[in-house]
Specification:
The chain is α+β, with helices and mostly antiparallel strands. Helices cover 29% and strands 21% of the residues. The chain contains 16 helices and 19 strands. Helix 6 packs antiparallel against helix 12 (334-343) and helix 10 crosses helix 13. The structure holds 2-acetamido-2-deoxy-beta-D-glucopyranose (5 copies).
């Protein structure tokens, strides 16, 4: 997901909806636009067809080409929870393929930042574009922020900066609440407070029945826990009530180095050391980024510190590394830092693919072996037009286990890697995906041999083929299935809404 390049109330159901009577059977037809027309008639000004700028805006705002290439028959842009509830009731009542458990009916999107085709868009169905549901509220005691399900964190942070507060959100622009928070949520303060999802007090959710419910530690507790990692499998989340945390400012940015064997070695040592439990500074976040763009390798680090401290000692091993070619380390507010990251990243990318994996922090020699294997693996794909590859090494959030992810709690020394590629042409899809798979297979073999591979795949960075929810462990998967049976007895969100689904038995 993160892609760096070169330096580079329970809503009362509106009566119209209860009136959302199912079409009489004789009115049913298989013409794809009919359900859109029906929805359009019920939600004037909120359903957009290919001939509108609202439709085009929605399509163009996806991060990757594979998502932009899918053409929904219409885009529904709800403004409030009652719209979402009414929509779900209407489409479920008029589902023309109720027995067809493999045909997606509607997709749900917030930021639309997930790479793979069909994560949050759908060909020939309806796309529910949640971006208009971006309300923001702060409780009187300032301990809870309520953010709409389609809120982009770039719009949330500035509302909290004047209070010296933040919420745990995305580190890159374009990433919005719905996907980020239901997949986990790697954030600037993840070594102190864990995943963003660990910090959610309650959810307002529209279930498959269209009913609006709240899930918290004291109400629908099973659903509350399931939503912490369970992606879009249980309903459409219209509001998140999340913990605020104090934040006076950030220091950090990007530093680039000459790509040499020596630089790789000293990075391997610096990262392995920084990850060691005795060296933990919970306010610090580091990522090493090895890249290959236009035939050249590069290496850069992102260093982030969640306090207004210039060059904090915890980064000493990184800031003293030789061969610095460029750096942009500065004091900034969290809002400014995320905007800065956006300024060095493309707003959209072409064809793309990524794989994620995780392991216990190894010694420097093992990191170096991973780096060298990565570099060698690039040879298989280097001729691909427009190829850009990034190998990103960063810490896993230190969770206390208040989620469904199944990660060992309180472990500061789990590393997460995401290998991402972008390229120009469909003809190269197999070459690139096979090339990346081969690198990851070799990496996992190295880690398995040392019994360091933990198997968990972080959903927000996973390709759909990695089936991330299946890596949460058998007990969590069984619990998630039970929650689905209880809150969505027909399995509507399993079958009719695309995304990262619960593993099939
Ligand atoms: C756009 O398409 C829809 C559905 O076909 C139609 O109802 C609407 O009138 C069209 N609007 C314009 C401006 O052509
Ligand atoms: C069910 O949906 C799949 C995927 O869209 C399609 O291939 C298949 O023909 C559909 N089956 C029926 C009976 O409509
Ligand atoms: C935020 O922190 C700054 C620096 O400590 C302080 O001057 C300011 O009064 C604080 N603002 C609020 C609203 O607490
Ligand atoms: C886990 O962390 C969250 C977020 O910091 C906190 O609200 C919760 O009370 C913690 N739970 C336990 C069991 O420590
Ligand atoms: C790659 O090189 C081409 C041709 O020199 C140039 O147009 C393009 O901007 C470069 N791309 C990147 C990401 O540097």
């Amino acid at each position: 997901m993160a892609f760096y390049f070169s330096l580079l109330g329970i809503a009362r159901l509106i009566s119209a909806v209860t009136a959302a009577a199912a079409l009489a059977p004789e009115q049913r037809s298989n013409k794809p636009l009919d359900l859109c027309r029906l929805v359009g008639a019920h939600f004037p000004g909120k359903v957009w067809f290919t001939n509108s700028s609202e439709y085009v805006d929605s399509q163009e705002s996806y991060y990757t080409l594979q998502e932009r290439e899918l053409n929904p028959s219409c885009v529904f842009r709800p403004a409030r929870t009652a719209d979402v509830s009414a929509f779900v009731k209407l489409v479920a009542a008029n589902d023309r393929y109720p027995k067809n458990l493999s045909k997606p009916l509607f997709a749900v999107r917030s930021g639309g930042h997930t790479l793979w085709s069909g994560a949050a868009n759908v060909d020939g169905g309806i796309t529910v574009d949640m971006r208009g549901m971006n309300s923001f509220g702060l409780s009187a005691d300032k301990k809870t922020a309520s953010i709409g399900g389609g809120s982009n964190f770039i719009d949330v942070y500035p509302q909290l900066v004047p209070h010296n507060l933040t919420v745990l959100g995305a580190r890159m622009p374009g990433v919005a609440a719905g996907g980020f928070l239901t997949g986990g949520g790697k954030n600037f303060l993840a070594r102190k407070y864990g995943f963003a999802c660990d910090n959610i007090f309650s959810y307002e959710v529209v279930l498959a029945s269209g009913e609006v419910v709240y899930a918290s530690a004291s109400q629908n507790q099973d659903l509350w826990l399931a939503l912490k990692g369970g992606s879009n499998n249980f309903g459409i989340i219209t509001r998140f009530d999340v913990a605020t945390h104090p934040l006076l400012g950030m220091w950090g940015g990007i530093v680039g180095f000459e790509y040499t064997p020596d630089t790789l070695s000293v990075h391997a040592q610096a990262f392995s050391d920084w990850m060691r439990p005795e060296n933990v500074d919970e306010l610090s976040d580091v990522a090493i980024i090895l890249g290959f763009v236009n035939g050249s390798f590069f290496i850069e680090d992102s260093l982030f510190y969640s306090a207004p401290v210039v060059s904090p000692p915890v980064f000493a091993e990184f800031t003293k590394l030789p061969g610095v070619t460029a750096q942009s380390l500065e004091l900034r507010s969290v809002a400014e830092l995320v905007i800065f990251m956006g300024s060095i990243l493309p707003a959209t990318i072409p064809r793309s693919f990524e794989l994620v994996y995780a392991f216990y922090n190894p010694d420097a020699a093992t990191y170096l072996a991973l780096f060298q294997t990565w570099q060698a693996g690039i040879q298989q794909v280097q001729g691909v037009q427009g190829l850009q590859i990034q190998y990103l090494v960063q810490p896993m959030p230190v969770t206390n286990g208040t989620n469904s992810l199944g990660l060992p709690p309180h472990q500061p020394d789990i590393t997460m890697v995401v290998l991402t590629a972008a390229w120009d042409n469909t003809v190269d899809d197999d070459t690139v995906t096979n090339g990346l798979q081969a690198i990851v297979t070799r990496h996992e073999a190295i880690l398995d041999a040392k019994k360091l591979n933990i198997g968990y795949k972080y959903l927000n960075y996973a390709d759909v083929t990695q089936n991330p929810i299946s890596t949460y462990g058998a007990a969590n998967v069984a619990r998630l299935r039970a929650v689905s049976r209880k809150y969505d007895p027909t399995g509507f969100f399993q079958a009719r809404v695309p995304g990262y689904k619960l593993p099939k038995k």
